[in-house]
Design brief:
The complex is a heterodimer. Chain A has three helices and no strands. By secondary structure, chain A is mainly alpha-helical. By secondary structure, chain B is an all-alpha fold. Helices cover 71% and strands 0% of the residues of chain B. Chain B contains eight helices and no strands. In chain B, helix 1 packs antiparallel against helix 2 and helix 2 packs antiparallel against helix 3. The longest helix of chain B is centred in the N-terminal third of the chain and has 26 residues. Chain B starts with a helix and ends in an 18-residue tail after the last helix. Classes of the chains: A mainly alpha, B mainly alpha. At the A-B interface, helix 1, helix 2 and helix 3 of A face helix 1, helix 2, helix 3, helix 6 and helix 7 of B.
């Protein structure tokens, strides 16, 4: 259906997505938008893992599916992280009526 | 190569939308677009099972949670409501189109009794067998730990958000004194006075 592209293309795309997520984490002020950018970075890492798994499958390695399995585990961990993170956000918002990370900077030690 | 370029464009436009759009709901929907494009990329990389998981868990469950919290906190309070008069006919049109397309597919290829060989053909090359071998073999410890982590996460989220009974009644009384809400209305999360 698709003609295959070299793995380096996928990894480059993953790097661009990761960089975009990093910019978001550093520039957004609302904590929920920072959180969305973190999700983007997680997905960028997943894309390169799947690309590497595909590369090793092409090379005939026996453990080629490990990359995809790690992505599965990352997905489950991301789900747990989102549940806890959004819970923290709701709790903070009740207390401060704001999710602006500049307002919350006093949380640091 | 053309497919890759189109996919990369969709992903990067979505990613830039996540980083730049001002409305949280728009940023979240932009991320949904990127995640769906990633699912297509997974199909292209012979990981059909992960593509399905990506759509169901990430673009589905996780993003719905995000949208719930964005709307619960009403983060975009001061934006004027957009005029969406075109949305209703467009939605009916899209729904009708979906019905026609699905019925056309069904009429062209009616469902027969499911044969194991046909099911195996559908899942061939999707990686579901390989992922299962690894997950219940080399990664079996990770599998169990992820189970414990998910349970812990759910309990922690409930514990974080739950309010004690006294606090809820107090918030309701305070809202009643302010005159904004009748005293018997349920407390609106995130709309309480700041001095709490």
């Amino acid at each position: 259906m698709f003609e295959p592209v070299p793995p380096s293309y996928w990894v480059a795309l993953s790097a661009l997505l990761f960089a975009a997520g990093a910019v978001g984490v550093l520039t957004r002020r609302s904590a929920i938008l920072v959180f969305l950018s973190v999700e983007l970075m997680l997905n960028a890492a997943n894309l390169s893992l799947v690309a590497f798994a595909n590369q090793w499958a092409d090379a005939g390695a026996a453990v080629a599916m490990s990359g995809q399995t790690v992505v599965f585990v990352v997905l489950a961990i991301a789900a747990a992280e989102v549940a806890v993170g959004l819970g923290i956000l709701v709790a903070i918002f009740r207390d401060r009526a704001s999710t602006d990370v500049d307002v919350l900077s006093e949380v640091r030690a | 190569m053309l497919a890759f370029a189109a996919l990369a464009t969709v992903m990067l436009v979505g990613a830039i939308g996540v980083v730049t759009l001002r409305q949280p709901v728009h940023a979240a929907l932009s991320l949904v677009g990127t995640l769906l494009a990633l699912a297509v990329a997974y199909v292209q990389l012979n990981a059909g099972f992960l593509a399905a998981i990506q759509v169901i868990v990430y673009a589905g469950a996780i993003m719905v949670l995000f949208l719930f919290v964005i709307m619960l906190l009403a983060l975009d309070g001061d934006a004027p409501p957009a005029n969406l008069a075109w949305l209703r006919p467009a939605a009916w049109g899209a729904g009708g189109l979906a019905v026609v397309a699905l019925l056309a597919v069904l009429l062209r290829d009616p469902l027969g009794p499911a044969a194991p060989a046909a099911i195996a053909e559908v899942f061939a090359g999707s990686g579901v067998g390989g992922v299962a071998d690894q997950l219940f073999g080399r990664f079996v410890l990770s599998f169990h730990l992820v189970g414990v982590l998910l349970l812990t996460g759910v309990v922690a989220a409930v514990g974080l958000v739950q309010r004690k009974a006294g606090q809820a009644a107090e918030a309701r009384a305070r809202a009643g004194q302010a005159g904004a809400v009748p005293p018997d209305a349920p407390p609106l999360p995130g709309r309480e006075p700041v001095e709490a």
